[in-house]
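Here comes an entry:

___
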Amino acid sequence: MKSYPISGGAAKAGSAHLRAQPDAAVVMARKFEDVFLHAFTRSRKVGPGSRKHLFVTLRFHEAPTLNRDAAAEWASCNLPATALHEWFVATGLEKKKDLFVALQVSPSTLSRAKPETTLDAAVTERMLRQSELFVRAAEVFGENGATWMTTPHGLLGGKAPVEYATNEFGGAKVRQILNAIEYGGVV
């Protein structure tokens, strides 16, 4: 299936293209892509010539979709601790405690972190998963996507989606709920 980088503008006729007015999901996807690209460029994990887009648009689907190849490559890398602050800003979350819940990084770890401190690749993987879910929530709920991600949900045992999706199984359940909300169906 052919894909197009979201930052590259609209695709040609016959393929998916972004609207002239970027919607909330596109804006959020670009923010997350910038966070990861900046972090990996800063840590020299990705050079400018080998840049892989984290979010792309697929044929017949205008919304940004996680590029699994890029995510798989980047998920095995350690990120600088400074990337967490940038990621938090990109999410639009209001409470810093949500950052710690979503990524399972303790506040004391971050308070001791120096600029050269790197975080375990497991944190990178959680950041990528949560980024995908925030973009998907923005696709379904628009500007209210971040609010939905932090609101307790009955189908998640009273946990907020951001809290429930701390592993891939929880992330799959959150994706399933978002799909059911958008397209209808059973969860």
Strands lie at 3-5, 55-58, 61-66, 79-80, 118-119. The mean pLDDT is 79.
